[in-house]
Amino acid sequence: MHPLLKKDRENLQELLSQTQKVAGEYFRQQDTLAPGRFVANIAMETLPEKGIGAMATLDHFAKNFAGQIANSAGPRYFGFVTGGSTPASVAGDWLVSAYDQNACGSNDSIAPQLERQTIHFFKQLFGLDEVYFGSFVTGATISNFTNLALARQWVGLQQGKDFSHDGLTGAEPVTVLSGTPHASIFKSLSMLGVGRKSVIRIATLPEREAVDIAALEKQLIQQAGPVIVVANAGTVNTVDFDDLVAVAKLKKKYNFWLHVDAAFGGFAACSEKYAHLLEGINAADSITIDAHKWLNVPYDAAMQFTRHKGLQLSVFQNSAAYLGDPEQSPDFFHYTPENSRRFRALPSWFSLMAYGKEGYREIVERNCAAAHHFGELLKASEDFVLLAPVRMNVVCFTLKQDDLSAETIRKFLEAVRDDGRVFFTPTQLHGTWAIRAAVSNWLTELADMDLAFEVLEKVSEKLKKAQPA
């Protein structure tokens, strides 16, 4: 054994202890660290011929890089739709790395059993029928990719073709209908060979991101063959929900695969105040929900659900003899894009066990209350304008000025970031350049929203003074 490896093995407990101190220092400062920062590109160094050992490497990282990590897991990071990491999920995630299980689905480890248990918990949390099969994937994009791969296979079978075996050559084009599809839908369709141009955007309701059901039915009438409908349960700009009950009724009349993108909106089910938004979701053929958003577990954790486990097997089944017969060797590497699978279910299992339905109800309702409070502050402001009603946990707003552009918003948000107290990301809504505040973190309180508004006003005033007279 190499001397450095031998030394690190002998001093593993001390190494883990020092690593805990580095992490502990981060958590200790989480209320005050900058949620966003600008970090210049670093010089690319040459790989060392001789290593320095784990302890010295940890020290080097702590001194030179730890201080430049963005506090995206903190209470005032409002970019994208990003949760933090609950204490229980951090404990679970550390053990994932320590145990280093290949959660392939065999009976060689408890890992796949706990994944099934966690999926079962989620079906109860989201109110999904027991018939749904589910598995963990890396994120919402790969969840959408996996589910749309099933939808593509279904379309092929309707045409008498087996796309997973024969490919798309000579097949009729696949058509996808959606009102406000997320960017990951287009990315997934590109990877699947279906193509970004396969999407037909359906009109949405006035001043909404929810699909116009009448317009959707009109398009369905015009379709000659089977299609894929992507419905939204929580859009990223305004958390708007398609009328899933109405879409489910259309499904009884027309031949389409219904995929519901509920990446973070699925967590509406946690609260009696918002659960009605998900009525009709059990008509879906496939569903995407993301755990590293509102569940607040570390990144690399999303779920996909489908009513068509057999179809999923036909798309993702492995043929290598060492991987076994799917009838004998259950699940996962026969049902997802990956063969090698991190034990990514464990942080979710830890967090669900630790806080239960009640804990997540509290997080969802507190985040939504914080977003509504922030919306009221913006509505009363002379510098900002709210672009949509605050439905749940995302606030979409912009500057109250005539010369809005992408560059204007970019410069404003850079100034906000450099203040060091809050972080937002830009967006565009109905052609207007805007700012999004996604409140998804388990630490966020009303006081954080007051501080965020204070920063926005300060930066706005500063930029106005800097303008030439």
What's the short story on this structure?
This protein is of the alpha/beta class and 469 residues long. It has 14 helices and eleven strands.
Question: What gyration radius follows from the Cα positions, in whole Å?
Answer: 24 Å
What's the mean pLDDT score? Answer: 95
Beta-strand residue fraction: 5-15%
The CATH class of the largest domain turns out to be Alpha Beta
How far apart lie the N and C ends?
71 Å
| Anisotropy-based shape | globular
Tally of individual helices: 14
Furnish the topology, listing elements before pairings.
Blueprint: H1 3-10, H2 12-28, H3 54-64, H4 87-99, H5 111-126, E1 133-137, H6 140-158, H7 163-166, E2 176-178, H8 183-191, E3 199-201, H9 213-222, E4 227-232, H10 244-251, E5 256-261, E6 286-290, E7 302-306, H11 309-316, H12 345-379, E8 384-386, E9 394-399, H13 406-419, E10 425-429, E11 432-438, H14 446-466
Parallel strand pairs: 2-3, 2-4, 4-5, 5-6
Antiparallel strand pairs: 1-7, 6-7, 8-9, 9-11, 10-11
Helix pairs in contact: 2-3, 4-12, 5-12, 6-8, 6-11, 12-14, 13-14
